[in-house]
Design a protein that fits this description.
Layout: E1 11-15, H1 19-30, E2 35-39, H2 42-51, E3 56-60, H3 68-76, E4 86-90, H4 95-103, E5 108-111, H5 116-131, H6 134-183, H7 190-220, E6 229-232, H8 233-243, H9 245-250, E7 254-259, E8 263-266, H10 268-284, E9 291-299, E10 302-308, E11 329-330, E12 339-340, H11 344-354, E13 358-363, E14 368-375
Parallel strand pairs: 1-2, 1-3, 3-4, 4-5, 7-9
Antiparallel strand pairs: 6-8, 9-10, 10-14, 11-12, 13-14
Helix pairs in contact: 1-5, 2-3, 6-7, 7-11, 8-10, 10-11
């Protein structure tokens, strides 16, 4: 039984105008022993509630004629309506939708696409709380308010990330475009040409930081989905090294590569940005007149790609934490007191793990070696 110790199966009313969503919810809940009633629209859902009050309602937000908010308000006015848990289903993951759901009388808030396991757990919790005593329900309401406050903060953070990414992209693009126009001028002095190339390199770095911010947010939501294909690895590495040549020359660091794998099965853009982040990070923490090397070879579980520098390395106790967002690692030897901060390495870890692979740091004796393992293709 869904509630463990209950003798009567709980009944769930699913109100959604999308047939596939209704079918998925029905299948997931019936597999756990629930009785499921279906309604394809708001008016039909209200009628179904009146005819046979359920123990829980799953309610889509966006429906024609009557949206989920209006349906919830009407259900709350019906007999049995005030104490029946209502779980909103929505693809609109934003703080405004969340607040409207709470004002309409919603008890919980799930984002689409529906994950069957999460759906079942949320329904189980709602049904159990409905059947518990008043004192326990009061304690649950306190916890629920705390959870709602945390979720609101999370949604506000996601909205802020979206605004930041949108507002920064255009000026960075304009910087890069103007630098390109300068470089096309044949009479541009050598010193000015070098400055324009540095502007382009810095604009490219800013652009990567902006996209990393967006993808780290996606990764937190489990929405960073690689689009895999067979990727020619050597040309991809050459692109990365060519792009970073200006930065390497500024640090008087030499770049080299040794690629012993023809292809990898990966998302080309995510892999390219991962390697760019790692190589750029290696350059910035390398002493002058040293080498940053990119290598790739077959491994037991797939393909291993290594980015090695000859800097001061990363302390053993920090080799896991260095991938956490905004972690700070003091690297003073050879590095002029610079520190490692930001989201570049966090993005790398999320991107590789989204492929089913993993990333680790080894001691290069001297330096640090970032090792990426990508699984074999299908």
């Amino acid at each position: 039984m869904p509630a463990g110790d209950q003798s009567v199966a709980a009944r769930v009313l699913v109100v959604d105008d999308n047939e596939a969503n209704r079918a998925l919810a029905k299948s997931a809940l019936e597999d756990e022993g629930y009785e499921v009633d279906l309604a394809s629209g708001g008016a039909e859902g209200i009628a179904a509630f009146e005819a046979r009050p359920p123990d829980c309602v799953l309610l889509d937000v966006r429906m024609p004629e009557l949206d989920g908010f209006a349906v919830c308000e009407r259900i709350r006015a019906l007999p049995h309506g005030p104490d029946t848990p209502v779980l909103f289903l929505t693809a609109l993951r934003d703080v405004d939708t969340f607040d409207r759901a709470l004002r309409a009388g919603g008890d919980d808030f799930l984002t689409k696409p529906i994950r069957p396991t999460e759906l079942v757990v949320r329904v189980q919790t709602a049904v159990r709380m409905r059947r518990m005593g008043a004192e326990i329900r009061e304690q649950y309401e306190v916890l629920k308010r705390q959870r709602d406050d945390l979720l609101r903060v999370q949604l506000q953070r996601e909205r802020l990330v979206s605004f930041v990414v949108h507002d920064l992209k255009n000026p960075v693009y304009t910087m890069d475009l103007n630098a390109q126009l300068l470089l096309r001028e044949p009479s541009l002095p050598a010193e000015a040409r070098e400055s324009a190339e540095q502007i382009r390199a810095s604009a490219s770095h800013l652009s990567r930081m902006i996209v990393n911010l967006l993808d780290v947010a996606k990764g937190d939501e489990g929405k960073l989905a690689p689009r895999r294909s067979d990727v020619d690895l050597a040309p991809l590495v050459d692109e990365v090294l060519t792009e970073l040549m200006v930065i390497a020359e500024a640090y008087t660091v030499r770049l080299k590569r040794a690629i012993h794998v023809e292809r990898v099965h990966a998302d080309r853009d995510l892999l390219r940005r991962t390697l760019t982040n790692l190589v750029e990070n290696a350059i910035r923490y390398s002493p002058p007149h040293t080498v940053v090397a990119v290598s790739a070879a077959p491994a037991e579980l797939g393909v291993e790609i290594r980015v090695a520098d000859q800097g001061s390395g990363i302390p053993p106790e920090m080799r896991e934490r260095v991938f956490d967002p905004f972690v700070q690692v003091d690297i003073t030897e050879h590095a002029g007191g610079r520190t490692s901060r930001g989201l570049g390495l966090t993005f790398c870890k999320l991107a590789i793990e989204a492929h089913g692979g993993h990333v680790r740091v080894e001691d290069g004796a001297p330096g640090a070696v970032f090792c990426l393992t990508l699984p074999h293709g299908p």
